[in-house]
Design goal:
This protein has 176 residues and is α+β, with helices and mostly antiparallel strands. It has one domain. Helices cover 47% and strands 26% of the residues. The chain contains four helices and six strands. The protein has helices at residues 3-27, 66-77, 124-155, 159-171, and strands at residues 30-33, 37-50, 60-63, 81-91, 94-101, 108-111. Strands 1, 2, 3, 4, 5 and 6 form a six-stranded antiparallel beta sheet that branches. A hairpin with a 2-residue loop joins strand 4 (81-91) and strand 5. Helix 3 crosses helix 4 (159-171). The longest helix has 32 residues, at 124-155. It starts with a helix and ends in a 5-residue tail after the last helix.
């Protein structure tokens, strides 16, 4: 089996994770992540929904304001899952933005919080680079921590079915 086939078979996990992030953002606003504390979530201006693995159908891309979310919610109700999204994170009061895609679960288009310019930083360029590396590490830790929380719930014998029911109810689908 080649890598492409393997990814195609496992994409459901990425779709469920991204859908769960949307659910988590609306239901809790964020989550407690190990080593970071509370991570606040916001939906960005791009959301792509597609058919669940093995299902036929087209993809729905929404972007922009609240009106577009109604279209995304309808796609959810019809059984589509999130294929890609723009996600905002707030960690220790600093705002990050990134793109996630279900197939790869790789951080793309990462926007880090603003830092001082090399002339403003008393430690100069070295201090600026170290600060940017720390910010990058926080973004990766946040996504890894959120994925860990999702997998812990999703794979738990009691919490897994309850999570699927909660997601179905939130999406406006039959629980099951």
């Amino acid at each position: 089996m080649n890598l492409g086939e393997l990814l195609e078979q496992k994409i459901f996990l990425g779709q469920e994770f991204l859908t769960w992030l949307w659910f988590l953002q609306e239901s809790e606003g964020g989550a407690e992540v190990k080593d970071l504390g509370w991570v606040e979530l916001t939906l960005g201006e791009r959301l792509v929904l597609g058919p669940a693995m093995g299902a036929d159908g087209s993809r729905v891309t929404v972007s922009g304001a609240e009106g577009s979310l109604a279209e995304a919610r309808e796609a959810l109700r019809q059984g589509k899952l999130v294929d890609a999204l723009r996600l905002g994170l707030e960690i220790h009061g600093e705002e990050y933005a990134l793109n996630l895609e279900a197939a790869e679960l790789a951080l793309k288009g990462l926007k880090l919080p603003t830092t001082a310019s090399p002339g403003e930083d008393p430690d100069g360029l070295e201090g600026l680079v170290l600060e940017r590396v720390a910010l990058l590490e926080n973004a990766v830790k946040a996504v890894e921590g959120l994925l860990g929380l999702f997998l812990t719930q999703r794979l738990h014998p009691e919490e897994g079915p309850e999570l699927r029911r909660a997601l179905g109810a939130w999406a406006g689908q039959e629980a099951g």
